[in-house]
Amino acid sequence: MLVKGNKKWMYLSLPFNVSTGSISTLVTLQILDIGGNALTIGYVMSLSNAVLIFASIFWGMAADRFSRRKQILISFAGTSISLILMQYSNDIIALASNYAFLTFISTASVTPMNMLIMETEDKKHWASAFSLYSFLSSIGVLISLLVSSVLVLFISIRRLFFILGLVALFTFIIGLKMVPEPQIPLERVAIIHNRESFLIRLKHLPLFFLHLPSKNSFKVFRLSRLTKKPINYVPLLYIGIIIFYISSGIFNTVYPAGLYVKGLSRSLVLLVISIGMIFQIGAFYISGKLTEQKGEKRIAYLSLLLRGSSYSTMGLVAIMMSGNVLFIALNSIFYPLAAGIAYSLYYTSSSTMIFKIVGERRQGTGLGVYSTVVGASLFLGSLLSGYIVHSLGYGMDFIIAGVLLLIDSYIFNSLEEG
Q1: How far apart are CA 116 and CA 168, in angstroms?
Q2: Is the pLDDT at 274 greater than 90, yes or no?
Q3: CB under 8 Å to 154, separation ≥6 — which residues?
Q4: Are the CB atoms for 358 and 369 separated by under 8 Å?
């Protein structure tokens, strides 16, 4: 029986994120261990991002037609199966295939878990419920990274995949008892009517399709709109978001590999990523209030400056030195600034700006355009990263990503609402 206000099921997000939180870094390192290179990593991550677009559409539509409970449990079980099978991935093709399936199946739980919060909590408690859910998910990712950084000292990454698969299996078994079935299901559109639900949904997965956009939906990018203020606010905001996700794809796809190639052990690579996650969790606690005080445009501008300069600095560090103590120390400083503080501030400010647009305009069209450009940008950034590293090296890859964000900061600073 469904009991209003029962938050126990939300705690499943912690072990589930423990099982998946370190996977992208582990897959990157495993590609290098079995003979791959930066190009290979770019291809594998691009495939994953392409699958992510399809999965977002498929599972989003399924959430309106299918049992929330069953979809969440399918995601837990499928994630477990995929992770367990990854230990048998002896070549790049097998690893890429398993990772693509993991991306597809793990995505299934994102929307229904957000919907369940709204369906099982009174509206006045939605903000605190979403805050708890976000906190548990973030802690799960952090635990995954920290535990993985220790375990890789003693076992292979393949064996670690198996252990994480068992964690997902445990989540599924517990979920059989804990995941509720709402008596009166809501439609997905309800998510975009509440600021907290919207922001948390985009934080977990930056793609959200109410329906597929048409060709006419992209008329917002017409040159006549781009050159006139204030009607260029929306297209310039979208362009700024496109640049952000291209830059993120260029940097994040190969950053763990860059640390590894530059001399860090697998454990230290995971530890640096963990430090970034710690700062991100802490920064999210102040990002909302800071954004309200200073304004979304100002915070987005400053966060892009910080992220861009941090990326560029790490690029210079990668060019000038390898995995000595100073190299580790500088990455342990600038990566948390970029992936922790700057990201949380940018995410909160930019997502709030998108929320306002979606609330004021046709919701399906606005979200469809946003999700399409984000998905395409992630795909392009991941694909470009491999070619940039192959041609120019890891340091230049990081610098290019940083310069893009510095250009992006100018775009956000020039935004003027009508």
Answers
A1: 20
A2: yes
A3: none
A4: no
Query: If you search the block for the tokens 């694909």, which residue do you land on?
Result: 383
The pLDDT tens digits of the residues spanning 342-356 come to 999 999 998 888 888
Nearest to 371 by CA among 48, 154, 8, 52: 52
Q: Shortest CA distance to 148 belongs to which of 236, 285, 245, 265? A: 265
**Can you say whether the dihedral through the CA atoms of 287, 292, 295, 296 is positive or negative?**
positive
Task: Say if CB 76 and CB 102 are below 8 A apart.
Answer: no
CA distance 61 to 325: 50
DSSP state of 341: I
Secondary structure element (H or E) that encloses residue 89, with its range: none
Question: What is the distance between the alpha carbons of residues 258 and 324, in angstroms, rounded to a whole number?
Answer: 14
Q: Which residue has the tokens 């299901």?
A: 185
Q: How many CA atoms lie within 13 A of 313 on its CB side?
A: 17
Cα separations in angstroms, 219 against 186, 216, 226, 307, 365:
31, 5, 11, 30, 11
Tell whether the model's pLDDT for residue 1 goes beyond 50: no
User: From the CA atom positions of the chain, what is the Rg in Å?
Assistant: 21
Element (H, E) at 52: helix 38-65
Model confidence over 329-341: pLDDT tens digits? 999 999 999 999 9
- Cα distances from 319 to residues 120, 322, 327, in angstroms, run 52, 8, 11
Integer Cα distance of 347 and 291 in angstroms = 10
Calpha distance 203→199 (Å, rounded) = 6
Distance CA 327, CA 335 (A): 12
Confidence at residue 130, expressed as pLDDT on a 0 to 100 scale: 84
* Alpha carbon separation from 81 to 45, 94, 170, 172, 226 (Å, rounded): 20, 14, 12, 11, 47
